[in-house]
Amino acid sequence: MKKIYIHTDLEGISGIDKGEMIKPDSPEHRYCIERLMTDVNAAVDGAFLGGADHVTVLDSHGGGGNFDLSLLDKRAEIDTKPNKKWWGILDGSYSGSFFIGAHGMAGTLHGFLDHTQDSTRIYNYYVNGRKMGELAQWAMVCGHYDVPLIMMSGDTAAVSEAAQFFAGIETAAVKTGISRTRAKLVSNDEAVEKIRSAAKIAVEKTEKINPFKPLLPMEVKIEFTRADYCDYIENMPDVERLDARAARMISQSYQNFWF
Questions:
Q1: Integer Cα distance of 159 and 192 in angstroms
Q2: Is the pTM for the entire model greater than 0.90?
Q3: Of 19, 55, 130, 247, which sits 20 to 30 A from 205 (CA to CA)?
Q4: Cα separation of 65 and 23, whole Å?
Q5: How far is CA 69 from the centre of its chain?
Q6: For residue 76, what pLDDT is reported?
Q7: Interior CA angle at 181 toward 175 and 21, to 5°?
Q8: Chain centre to alpha carbon of residue 219
Q9: How far apart are CA 58 and CA 25, in angstroms?
């Protein structure tokens, strides 16, 4: 049985070309939700076309609350996170994972809404000395279960980032950043077709893509934008403060990649 797990974000969804659109109080926020569901459904459809027997979807942006379930493809299972883990019910029974709506890591040139967790507090994030972002973080969690990240969609900066980290991954670029808060879109129809096609191909070649598993134990280092944002680690026994804005820890698990 071939199962696919779909992780989602909002910044890299098609049709979103201005940063303010994704804010909940924006008059265009409803449109963002509709585009999110359209991109997710394209990925779900592509997965089944590629031979998937089961598809699970997680509403991940900001911890959830973004999906309109009335618009979700009825063939997909929605992960309600009954185990209270942020990665939901992902486990080793899945053959591969998609990341729909991805954005570039903090500091990405021409990356639309680039950030790593928190655009205000986090300057850089490293694992084993390599700068990483949320794409790699999700791939590491998948790697904990020996599940490969096989497909992603997002802006061209995120697509380029994915190609640098994950050999063989299928990608769908739905826009190109003009500045951090503005982007040039492909048409909605083209975006849907690119996502569906990439998803289909990814499932067809799932067995050829390896899980992302950095060397363990791994060094996790975070550089904050200000010293006071780093102060909270002072009472954490397993975290070492390096200077005013930076701290590190040694992790034995891909599920433990943050402090």
A1: 16
A2: yes
A3: 130
A4: 13
A5: 20
A6: 98
A7: 85
A8: 21
A9: 23
